[in-house]
Amino acid sequence: MLLVLTIFAINNNTTTYILMEKLVAPSILAADFGNLQRDVEMVNDSKADWFHIDIMDGVFVPNISFGMPVLKSIAKHANKTIDVHLMIVDPDRYIQTFADLGADILTVHYEACTHLHRTVQAIKAAGMKAGVALNPHTPIAVLEDIIKDLDVVCIMSVNPGFGGQSFIENTYKKIQQLKNLIEFSEASTLIEIDGGVTDQNANKLIEVGADVLVAGSFVFKSDNPTDTIENLKNIIN
C-alpha cells in the first residue's frame, strides 16, 4: 500500500498530511474461468492493487461460486494482496483453511456471525487482516463496538450473490456514516465498496470516503481490462 507524504508550511509551522493511495480490487468472480490463469496474470501485470475473491456457498447467498481448490490455484499465480470475501454461513469453520490457502485479508459478513468479535480475533490470530461486510439493508451502527478491531469494512452496494447488478444509490450515505464512525473512533479501518462500481461512480465513491473499489464485470467484460483498471486508478487518485 503506497503512502504519499505531502508537507505544507503555514505561518512558519510545518503541518504534515498523509494521503493514502486509493485502491482497485478486480473481482475474480467476473473473470473467465476457462482462462483463469490468464486473467490472474493480467491482474498481476495491471495497475490493480488487490485480488478480490468471492466465496459463495449457495446458502448465505443464492449462488455458488468456487471453493478451496480454485482459490489455491489463484494464490499460486497471484503476486498481489489476496482479499477473500466469504459469503457463507458459519465462516468460523474455515478461518485457518483460508489462511493456509494464502488469503491476506479475510472478510466475513456481519449477518453470518453470531459472535463477531470472536470471529474477528480468530482471523487475526491466523495471521490475516480482518474485514466485515455489510449487506445493503444492514446499518453502519452495528459496527460501533468493533470498528477499531477491523482492518476493512466492505459495504455491499448490491445485494450479494451475483455479479453485474445495478449500484444501490443509498451506498453513498452509508459510506459517509462509516467514515464518520471511523474518524470518531480514531480507527484506521479501510472502506471497501463491492458491487456496481464503474468509471461513472468511482470518483464520487472516493469523494464521500471510500478507500478500495471492487470492480468485477466493469473490468473483465470490457474490451481491454488492463486499460480499464488503469483508467479507474487514474480517476480515483
What does this structure look like?
By secondary structure, the protein is of the alpha/beta class. 31% of the residues lie in helices and 25% in strands. It is built from 8 helices and 10 strands. The two termini are 13 Å apart. The active site is at residues 54, 194. It holds the Pfam family Ribul_P_3_epim. It comes from Tenacibaculum lutimaris.
Helix/strand-derived category reads alpha/beta
Total number of strands: 10
CATH architecture: Alpha-Beta Barrel
The number of helical elements comes to 8
Largest sheet: 8 strands, parallel
Specify the CATH class: Alpha Beta
Give helix % range: 25-40%
Q: What's the mean pLDDT score?
A: 91
Strand content: 15-25%
Write the layout of secondary structure elements.
Blueprint: E1 3-10, E2 13-20, E3 23-26, H1 36-45, E4 50-56, H2 68-77, E5 81-87, H3 95-100, E6 105-109, H4 116-125, E7 129-134, E8 152-156, H5 171-185, E9 190-194, H6 202-207, E10 212-215, H7 217-220, H8 225-236
Parallel strand pairs: 3-10, 4-5, 5-6, 6-7, 7-8, 8-9, 9-10
Antiparallel strand pairs: 1-2
Sum up the structure in keywords.
237 residues, alpha/beta, TIM Barrel, 8-stranded parallel β-sheet, two-stranded antiparallel ribbon, 8 helices, 10 strands, 25% strand
